[in-house]
Amino acid sequence: MIDYQKVLSEITTDCALSVQKGVVATYIPELANVDIDKLGIHLIDSDKNTYSSGDATETFSVQSISKVLTLAQAFGMLGADIWKRVGVEPSGDPFNHLSLLEQENGIPRNPLINAGALVVADILVSQLKNPKQDFLNFVRTLTGDHTINFDHAVANSEERTGFRNYATAYLLKSFGNLENDVTTVLDFYFHQCAIAMSCKQLTQAFYPFMNQGKCLQNRTHLTQQQTKRINSIMLTCGFYDEAGEFAFEVGLPGKSGVGGGIVALLPGKYCVATWAPGLNAKGNSKLGMEVLEKLTTKTGQSIF
User: pTM for this structure?
Assistant: First the structure.
């Protein structure tokens, strides 16, 4: 039997000594203020046992990790019709590039790049009566934690500076793949990215993807087939143009965010989240990727 607590403690002790911690995101001004020395990891296994080390209960802006949760909500509502508006192929490009969107007539490669996430946001704006609150309630229901909230300072910071997202949304609109007003969709998108969660809360939110669609409270939020589809998208698209490297080094489906968070899972075994704000050149947490590589190496547990 694996002693996860011992493994996590060893990993955080080792990685905390690293001199090269990456660089915090600065293009969203609020994120530039985060302490680069923060490092946390939390793991929950299939028996709901939990293990933590470091800053695992401190909240941070989850950013693009939220794209998996909006996808889950939209997929649960629309079913396979969602794939008429967004693809499932890796982009091979950074998360905010526009060239493929132009070439492929406004159909984003996948729902985890910015263009695809904006289409998913548009779907939820159309489907939900009170989109921001209803999405927040969805996340709270997944986790069983009603303290989770938006970080409005981060959302406002993104709204003031997210010019490339404005460009992406208007390009989508020009191709007819955005049904609602651009500013309304972006307001929802900036808020979904600005949800503040801890490593512990992220593992609770992603527990259904490890548990065939059932959350910690044993409610079914996704079918097994939908869970399978989302996990496959996380594996191939969850780290943008570094997805292959993450699969190669870590060997788990997962998703990163420029707030320094990464969440990953081994179906039927565990869900794990890390937080280390310093990013590598691809926009993924430098220490977070190292932490997860050490976890799967030390435990010998990955999907491969």
Answer: 0.96
Average confidence (pLDDT) over 179-199: 98
Residues for the chain: how many in total?
A: 304
pLDDT, the chain, mean = 94
Residues annotated as part of the active site = 64, 67, 189, 240, 258
Share of the chain above pLDDT 90, in %: 88
